[in-house]
Structure formats: C-alpha cells, structure tokens
Amino acid sequence: MKAYLLALGSALxxxxxxxxxxxxxxxxxPPPGPPSYQQGYVDGCTSGENAANNIATQVKNxxxxxxxxxxxxxxxxxxxxxxxxxxxxxxxx
Length: 93
Description:
The protein is mostly helical and 93 residues long. The chain has a domain at 34-93. The protein has helices spanning 2-14, 35-52, 62-67, 69-92. It starts with a helix and ends with a helix.
C-alpha cells in the first residue's frame, strides 16, 4: 500500500510538467506561463499537428520566435509534443 501511494504521489508531481490537456481536436491547451509562452505553445501545437497530418501550414510568429525566448520555448515544446501525439494517435487507428 505504501509503495502504491508513493507511486501515485510521484505521478501527480510529474503530471503538471507534461503538455497541456488536449481538446477534441487533439490541440493542447497551453500550460501555465507567460502570455507569450502560451501563444507560442498554441502556435507550435497547431504546427506540429499540421505536420503530422501532412498539412504544409505552419503557424509561427517569426518575429516573436526570433526575439522572445518564452514564445520560442513554448513553440518548440508544443511542436515536438503535439507532433508526437498526433503521430501516435494516427498509428492507433
């Protein structure tokens, strides 16, 4: 029982560090952070899902990506996470 509670507690601590929750389309809601990080996250996730579905449209504010570290970090994290998630969903069906 003690091991179970320890494992459950550890999982709950790690859970917020992952990507945001996903909606019906699979697009992730951004995790907490500065507004520019959240916008980068939404844009990056959309781009990652587009790439997984062979849609050439990439959503990225190039000026913000170059100059804003929070936007760039959000975009990169979400792009990778949502691309992988979308590819995994495609292989399951």
